[in-house]
Specification:
The protein is an alpha/beta fold and 279 residues long. The protein has twelve helices and eight strands. The protein has two domains: 191 residues, Rossmann fold (3-Layer(aba) Sandwich), CATH 3.40.50; 64 residues, no CATH class.
Amino acid sequence: MIATPAAPTVCTVHSADGTTISYHTTGAGPDVLIIPGALNDATDYTKLATALAAHFTVHTIQRRGRVGSGPQGPDYSMATECADVAAVRAATGARYVFGHSYGGLVALEAARRDLSIAKLAVYEPGVSVQGLFPMDWTPQYRRFLAQGRPFDAFATFAIGTGPAAARRNPRWLMAAILRLAFRGDKRAKVLQLLEANLHEHEQVGRLNDSYPNYREISADVLLMAGGKSGLPHVAPALDRLTEVLPSAQVHTFPKLDHFGPDHGGPVEVADTVTAFLHS
């Protein structure tokens, strides 16, 4: 009989600007930090953290703008995200980092700023190359938020940044699909994060074609992608990253899409990350 894992311990630190940042800790062993993606929080990575916790002490950061941590604030930037990561790493001693989607971009930026990160694993990081991560959805998204039409904003984002199948849908249909897919606590959380999602993706756009900066990363890097992702920015981003990173390897999960770490295959992703961190 498999024992039910204990609930994670929730701890807090203060970032450089004084903002409270919480993180969830579970497991035992070398310390690993998980950085969630946009429209996600620490709880979305519970299965991934639990699988990693068989070998590691896992700290999942509750990024600013999420429940338990402070707001993004008017001066939000990639620098504040990296300062938050640095604060949690200082408290935990984590030298291994995993990042998913926007969290993968944060992880790359953090590793560029702090060479004490020894190993870095990122799954489809939000790296934009030659504008292939679309940003033209943001003006309409902002208008819908201002008008109190969150599902129209959400649909605009899903169509603007999603795979080809999503981009073919009219907004009314995508909004209806999202209303059905997101209910209860899951819906409440995503709607609460829509404003933060805008600011985070503005950082993706601002960092377009800045990937040569990652030559500065000294960590060993594992680049991961889902074979069924269908996102146009992923392959070019991984190609450019393998060119500039001093030490990088690529792993593709044929049956997973963009949401492999949080929905589609957290145990499979954890197994691959574990093997990389132990290598």
